[in-house]
Design goal:
The complex is a heterodimer of chains A (422) and B (81).
Chain A (H helix, E strand, L loop, with lengths): L2 H10 L18 E12 L3 E13 L5 E13 L1 E2 L9 E4 L6 E4 L6 E2 L4 E15 L2 E12 L2 E14 L4 E14 L26 E17 L2 E14 L7 E5 L10 E6 L5 E14 L3 E12 L4 E12 L5 E12 L8 E2 L17 E15 L2 E14 L19 E13 L1
Parallel strand pairs in A: 14-20
Antiparallel strand pairs in A: 1-2, 1-23, 2-3, 3-8, 4-7, 5-6, 8-9, 9-10, 10-11, 11-12, 12-13, 13-16, 14-15, 16-17, 17-18, 18-19, 19-21, 21-22, 22-23
Chain B lengths: L9 H15 L26 H14 L17
The chains are: A mainly beta (422), B mainly alpha (81).
């Protein structure tokens, strides 16, 4: 093996997990190409397709350049935050020009959106010395109602015969939200189609900043561990402009639990998020075990834990099977609610977005990888994701008690990945 | 006198304890020599070996759940959360 390849392999053995700019095992004067295709189908909801193309090349002086392209599209019905009811419900489209209806007993979802996103990324790693590297990366992401710019800078030191790696990274992002139908007034009423809509402007912005500190440590000849602390801060317009909350009647005995109106959500204008991530890799007799644990907390009072386990089981002829199991638990944001009620004054913040709710989620999957020939390696994976919350909460009122207020989300995910050198 | 209180989540305390144990309780016994890296140099032993697969996962979970990040940036560059 050429000396430069050995040096590259040694460097990779203590790499910390980075967003994009970590040095990978790239042959000099060659591009490492990675292609990924993912399709997911949610039962009775959305269908998503995502395409990723990455290219990485090591330069003559040991520096590295990276470019990436991402395209994804989402179709189908996205839950709009309202709760199911015992009668047909009519909602105004985001544009304010039309409406759509949801049958009795069904989770209200807007099927009038089709979302397509295009993102371009680029990165450069300056291998200042054999033990110190500086990385730069940036992205531009565009949707018809969203624009994002991001830039990152990171530093990595390899110490103690490259058994220890230290990482410091900073990242900033600027986003512009320009939703269909303009920005809703916070907690304002949804008005019928064709009438005056409660809006306050065509666009708003939000920014994000992140500081990340990481440590990767080789334990022994067959295992290594990584620890990472990340502090993220978000500020600006953090609402989902398309999400509603039902206003439920809790005052009229003859109508308890009926939906009286709908209001747009409102979230705080800042969010402070702390994340601890711990990962462990261990070579076993028949393969490699990969276990990671992530714990997050923020000032919205969202607490979340994620345990992710994969085992790459080696088969003959450079083939492998990789089962995957992930368990995720989340505690709701302090302003999350199933709905508003008619008897109470409007709160300052409220959202019925289930992504901020209390739920458990499990992923079970299996991946098969193989090298078809000298041109590259392929892998295909099938996974099942389910998200389960409390569909019969204690706060359900009257007619609501006959409804499932948190229908289980079931999703089938198919992935294809291809890697080659060019 | 200014009093500063730092709250550390329970899981973070365990992670800190693990990191401290690694760095204090057996630092001299951790790590390998250059010639002992035959296993560690294998692609499947790199934390970034499956980086595209992990990126696809992270983007999917970012659009379905209330938290993200850890491996990469917690924001998403998209309007999906």
């Amino acid at each position: 093996m050429p000396i430069k390849d050995i040096q590259q392999a040694l460097s990779c053995a203590s790499c910390s997990l980075l967003g994009l700019a970590a040095p990978a095992a790239v042959a000099a004067e060659a591009w490492d190409i990675d292609l990924g295709l993912m399709s997911y189908i949610e039962q009775d909801r959305n269908t998503g397709i995502e395409f990723l193309l990455n290219a990485r090349r090591e330069l003559a002086d040991g520096d590295e350049v990276f470019v990436g392209l991402e395209i994804d599209t989402l179709t189908g019905a996205t839950p709009n935050g309202a709760t199911p009811s015992n009668v047909v419900q009519t909602f105004t489209q985001s544009s304010g020009d039309g409406s759509y209806q949801v049958a009795a007993g069904e989770l209200p979802a807007d099927d009038t959106h089709m979302d397509t996103r295009l993102a371009v990324e680029a990165g450069y790693t300056d291998q200042v010395s054999s033990q110190f590297a500086i990385g730069y990366d940036g992205h531009i992401s565009m949707e018809f109602d969203y624009l994002s710019f991001g830039f990152g800078n990171n530093y990595q030191w390899d110490l103690d015969r490259r058994n220890t790696s230290l990482y410091v990274g900073i990242y900033g992002e600027y986003n512009r939200v320009h939703p269909v139908g303009n920005i809703p007034l916070p907690l304002s009423l949804m008005t019928p189609a064709g009438t005056l809509q409660n809006r306050r402007g065509s666009a708003d912005t939000r920014t994000a900043a992140e500081l990340s500190l990481g440590l990767t440590q080789v334990i022994d000849r067959r295992s290594l561990v990584q620890l990472r602390f990340t502090q993220s801060y978000f500020e600006g317009y953090l609402n989902d402009p398309y999400k509603l909350l039902s206003v439920i009647d809790d005052q009229n005995p003859a109508n308890l639990g009926a939906t009286l109106a709908y209001r747009f959500e409102n979230r705080p204008e800042s969010r402070d998020l702390s994340t601890v991530y711990l990962a462990y890799k261990r070579e076993l007799e028949r393969g490699v075990l990969d276990v990671s644990l992530r714990y997050s907390s923020d000032d919205w009072e969202v607490l979340a834990s994620a345990l992710d386990m994969r085992f790459r089981y080696r088969l003959s002829g450079k083939r492998y099977l990789q089962p995957h199991l992930r368990w995720y638990r989340q505690q709701e944001a302090e302003f999350y609610r199933y709905n508003l009620v008619s008897s109470e004054a409007l709160p300052e913040y409220a959202s019925a977005d289930t992504r901020l709710a209390t739920f458990d989620a499990i992923t079970i999957g299996l991946k098969y990888g193989f090298a078809a020939n000298k041109e590259g390696t392929h892998s295909i994976a099938a996974e099942y994701y389910t998200q389960q919350g409390d569909g019969e909460p204690d706060e359900a009122i009257g007619l609501q008690q006959d409804q499932d207020l948190f229908p289980t989300l079931n999703t089938l995910i198919i992935k294809y990945l291809f890697s080659t050198r060019w | 006198m200014i009093k500063i209180t730092i709250e550390i989540p329970l899981a973070a305390r365990y992670c800190l304890l693990l990191a401290a144990s690694i760095s204090i309780g057996g630092c001299a016994n951790l790590g390998v020599e250059t010639w002992e890296r035959e296993t560690l140099s294998q692609p499947e032993m790199q934390f970034l070996e499956d980086d595209m697969d992990l990126a696809l996962d992270d983007h999917f979970y970012f659009s379905k759940e209330g938290t993200s990040g850890g491996r990469g940036f917690a924001g998403g560059g998209c309007g999906c959360n």
